């Protein structure tokens, strides 16, 4: 195991609060490992992981209720463009975990253009645009029916009530396999949609400016939590479940998800990269969202020219 010296600038028992983007799952595993294995204690930090609520992590961070949070880059870009004080500071996954998925026995679906005229179990927002672009880029018309179902989309797909949906390969995809649901999928970036580092840790300029050493200590300890989890996936899965016994009751799913994250080189990339945000991919996603017409400024007006995305993220608080 690689041992990293944690930044020592934080005072003893500095309090750090983290807001989740969803109920606890393997995307959050480095936080729980860092708590359980004492990485935060060694860094002089008392870290409180807030229970998930309907208030977005970006809202909690931008309003100073939490120093850090978990969010996707689409949320970071849309909320910061609209005036929220949020900044991405750590990429939890190094590759896109999202995908377009459908039942494996659908011989009538061989590429995205075959989705024309079919029923999409959607989630609102930018996701319809992403699906439409994939179809059009494959030579189709981008004409499909959408029913917004949220998390019930996966049951609807399994029952054949809808034709396709989007999921996270390392969670819903694992669960489908465990339940014997054979699926096939299309990857966004294969059809002209920028691939993302799907899940990130965010903070705010206000917090980072006031607490730079605490931020560095927190991210160094958190990075070690994710590294430890990648090197000890079964033990890490047990730690996550022990911390959240009422939420995580499916041990096979949690262990299977960790296996998928490790085998897919999501937490630590093939070249050993961990935590680092890729500016090229972040900027490409920002340009895509601008072109899609989904970004609005503080007044609510849609912007047509891409802003400078440099202030939206930073690798400066990661360990060297």
Total strand count, please? Answer: 10
The name of the CATH superfamily of the largest domain reads Periplasmic binding protein-like II
Beta-strand residue fraction: 5-15%
Count of distinct structural domains: 2
Tell me the number of helical segments per DSSP (H or I, 4 or more residues long): 12
The helix/strand class is alpha/beta
Which series of helices and strands comes N to C?
EHHEHEHEEEHEHEHEEHHHHH
CATH topology of the largest domain, by name, is D-Maltodextrin-Binding Protein, domain 2
Query: Mean pLDDT across all residues, rounded?
Result: 95
Q: Helicity, in percent?
A: 25-40%
Which regions are unreliable across 5 or more consecutive residues at pLDDT < 50?
1-12
Shape label: globular
Largest sheet: 5 strands, mixed
> From the 3D coordinates, which CATH architecture of the largest domain would you assign?
3-Layer(aba) Sandwich
Tell me the radius of gyration: 20 Å
Mind telling me the CATH class of the largest domain? Alpha Beta
> What is the first-to-last residue Cα distance?
18 Å
- Name the strands of the widest sheet in spatial order: 2-1-3-10-4
Keywords: Iron, Metal-binding, Pyridoxal phosphate, Thiamine biosynthesis, Transferase
Organism: Martelella mediterranea
Subunit structure: Homodimer.
GO molecular function: metal ion binding; transferase activity
SSE layout:
Elements: E1 14-19, H1 29-36, H2 39-42, E2 45-49, H3 57-62, E3 68-71, H4 73-81, E4 87-91, E5 98-103, E6 119-122, H5 127-137, E7 145-148, H6 153-158, E8 164-168, H7 172-178, E9 183-186, E10 200-203, H8 205-210, H9 212-231, H10 233-243, H11 251-263, H12 279-292
Parallel strand pairs: 1-2, 1-3, 6-7, 6-8
Antiparallel strand pairs: 3-10, 4-10, 5-8, 5-9
């Amino acid at each position: 195991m690689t041992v990293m010296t944690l930044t020592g600038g934080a005072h003893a028992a500095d309090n750090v609060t983290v807001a989740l983007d969803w109920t606890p799952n393997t995307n959050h595993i480095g936080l729980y490992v860092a708590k359980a294995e004492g990485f935060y204690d060694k860094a002089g930090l008392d870290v409180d992981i807030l229970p998930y609520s309907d208030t977005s992590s970006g809202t909690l961070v931008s309003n100073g209720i939490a120093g850090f949070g978990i969010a996707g880059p689409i949320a970071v870009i849309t909320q910061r463009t609209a005036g929220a004080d949020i900044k991405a500071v750590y990429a939890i996954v190094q590759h896109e975990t999202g995908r377009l998925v459908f039942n494996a026995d659908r011989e009538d679906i061989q590429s995205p253009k075959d989705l024309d005229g079919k029923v999409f179990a959607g989630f609102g927002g930018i996701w319809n645009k992403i699906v439409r672009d994939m179809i059009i880029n494959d030579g189709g018309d981008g004409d499909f029916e959408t029913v917004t179902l949220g998390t019930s989309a996966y049951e609807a797909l399994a029952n054949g009530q809808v034709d396709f949906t989007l999921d996270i390969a390392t969670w819903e995809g694992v669960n489908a396999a465990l339940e014997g649901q054979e699926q096939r999928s299309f990857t966004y970036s294969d059809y002209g949609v920028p691939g993302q580092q799907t899940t990130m840790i965010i903070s705010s300029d206000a917090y980072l400016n006031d607490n730079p050493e605490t931020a560095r200590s927190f991210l160094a300890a958190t990075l070690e939590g994710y590294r430890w989890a990648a090197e000890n996936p079964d033990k890490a899965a047990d730690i996550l479940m022990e911390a959240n016994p009422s939420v995580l009751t499916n041990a096979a799913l949690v262990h299977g998800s960790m296996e998928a994250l490790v085998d897919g080189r999501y937490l630590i990339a093939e070249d050993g990269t961990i935590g680092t945000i890729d500016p090229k991919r972040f900027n490409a996603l920002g340009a895509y969202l601008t072109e899609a017409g989904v970004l609005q400024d503080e007044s609510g007006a849609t912007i047509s020219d891409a802003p400078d995305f440099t202030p939206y993220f930073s690798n400066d608080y990661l360990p060297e």
